[in-house]
Amino acid sequence: MAVSMDPNSQFYFLTLRKHACRLRYIIYQMHRGELSSKELIDNLEYAASILESNYVDSCRLQAEEQTEQIDSEDVPEEVRKWLALTFTQSVNDPRQKVSFKSVANAVRSGIRFDRLARRSLSAGLDIVPEKAAELLKEINNWDFDIFQLNEISDNNALKCVGMALFGKYNFLNKYKIPLVKFEAFLNKLQQGYCKHNNPYHNMVHAADVTQTAHWLLSQSGLVECLTDLELFAYIFSAMVHDYEHTGHTNSYHVQSSSDYALLYNDRSVLENHHASAIFRLMHDYSQYNILEKLSKQEYREFRNLVVEIVLCTDMSTHFAQVKEVKHMITSEEEIDKTKALSFLIHCSDISHPAKKWPFHFRWTNQLMEEFFRQGDLEMTMGIPVSPLCDRLTVNIADSQVAFIDFIVEPMMIVCSELLAKLLETLLQALESSDNNDRSKQTAAVDQFRLSQPWMKIIPENRIRWKEYIAQQQNKAEGNEGPS
């Protein structure tokens, strides 16, 4: 029987070396005809048990590392349970990430500073209401008001953002998407987001995530390192990442043995559904298939990238993603594009504590109402109420301080470091470029100035919540919320 051991210990590596030598000797014996079938089977079973044990130990240590990061006596018990349940992975999660070409390789293949990404927004705003089109001129701002856009566009925020960015990046022309078909797709996409009438996971959230994802991409200069197809997949992923969200957590689906959980075997239940449902829509209904002009190779690459990015919006992958990105930042190896893009979408997905207080406070209230509705449902079903889902006991301010301290602020610091590394890679590629028109390239690069507005906003939001906690402690009726 294999003996469990610490994968970080010297004994662990010596043991692996010993068993590798044993396997090599088995191969030698097989070549010489010195090994019987029974001896071969026995040795292979032993080797398999070693590998299985090592896998379990590695997963166990990963889970322990994740929970240690949120194990603080300063955090209320229920908030700790929520953080552990939502942002850590199950030990038996087998999913591996797919590797694509790196950012550095893309840069070296030639930087195209005159790419169509620099087009004006006007190309995509022909069917957008005039007031909405005017507001969308501010889409490159971190403080873009997605709520105002939704109001003045008559609840069409996602459609407007989609039109603006598809026009800006010239996707309609590049991939021969008829405007009528794209508009039909956007209408159907918004319907999917409205399917369950969610307070938080709705099409306004999707529009907000898409605008934020666009901001991060344009700020880092990574847009210059992507192929047109990768850029298309990135923006598309942000738009569809919560398509037909049920308004419940993955944990709820697993605990209640929902149809979705049974269909997706308890693994990233919602994320699998989002990706599956949107591709099924385009596959089954040609009037919504905006990908029909892609070649088979383009479609396969596009689909692989979208599925990977959407699956990485599963919050249980949070700590694993942060760890991977930290390694990429400090490593001399080239940056993996898929991991970088997935992380930027993940950051965009939970970035509301990094937005100005009115936006953050509104998003928080909408998210908590969605949690409370799930808690109400769990009570009627007679199953345990999930953490932060009991509207009678939850302290919203405590939960947000913990969310900022343990999840959002560390994540956005890593995001800043990643953006800096990407910009550094871009500048290095420029220096080594053979292009003679250096003045043109230098002028283009000069527009990228690493902006980190969240470094000021996040501490301010934390202070607002802590002030509210102090008010609660001093007032028995402290439920008015910070102003």
- Strand pairing plus helix content: what structural class? mainly alpha
CATH architecture of the largest domain: Orthogonal Bundle
Name the beta content range.
under 5%
* Major sheet size, sense and barrel closure: none
Helices and strands, in N-to-C order? HHHHHHHHHHHHHHHHHHHHH
Q: Remind me, CATH topology of the largest domain?
A: Catalytic domain of cyclic nucleotide phosphodiesterase 4b2b
- The parts where pLDDT drops under 50 for at least 5 residues are 91-118
CATH class of the largest domain: Mainly Alpha
Question: How confident is the prediction overall: mean pLDDT?
Answer: 84
- Domains (count): 2
Gap between N and C termini, in Å? 62 Å
Number of helices: 21
Helical content stands at 55-70%
Shape: globular
CATH superfamily of the largest domain: 3'5'-cyclic nucleotide phosphodiesterase, catalytic domain
Radius of gyration: 25 Å
Question: What is the β-strand count?
Answer: 0
Protein name: Phosphodiesterase
Active site: 201 (proton donor)
Binding site for AMP: 201-205, 242, 349, 400
Keywords: cGMP, Hydrolase, Metal-binding
